[in-house]
Amino acid sequence: YFNWTFFSWTSFSILGGGHIAKPLGELGARAGFSVAVVDDRPFFANENRFPDADKIICNDFEIAIEKLQLNKADFVVIVTRGHKHDGVCLRKVLEYETNYVGMIGSKRRVKGMMDQLLGEGYCQDTLDKIYSPIGLRIGAVTPDEIAISIIAEIIGVRRNGKDGKAMRK
Asked: What predicted TM-score, i.e. pTM, was given to this entire model?
């Protein structure tokens, strides 16, 4: 007998369809999430690349994020191909109240983004809720390892709330 109520079919949105997104989508589906993948490039946002995804949106990130209809139960990971797209996605996602928003990036790059957002008028309390750098400190190097560290952090938040041990302070 398997207790299906153990799983939470919560939405897990991956913004960016690159090397980390592929194993992250697979792991998210295996962990019981309803996976959505967003990218503005057809080569990266398609069913062949993400067969486990429940939703794939190929569109500009701002338009695609609106189509996700994010809510308090959702988990969002930003792993786009560049700093510019990460910023666009983060600003758009911050318009919604989500359970988790994480963004990949080096500590230097993340600090630069947070300083920029503070300068734009975002409050520190809002920025403190962002998981970035994203993932648990396991020494991950490969895309698969990085995806494992990210999904482990997300599972920790889903099961234990926001006080899990993450890479951020």
From this structure: 0.90
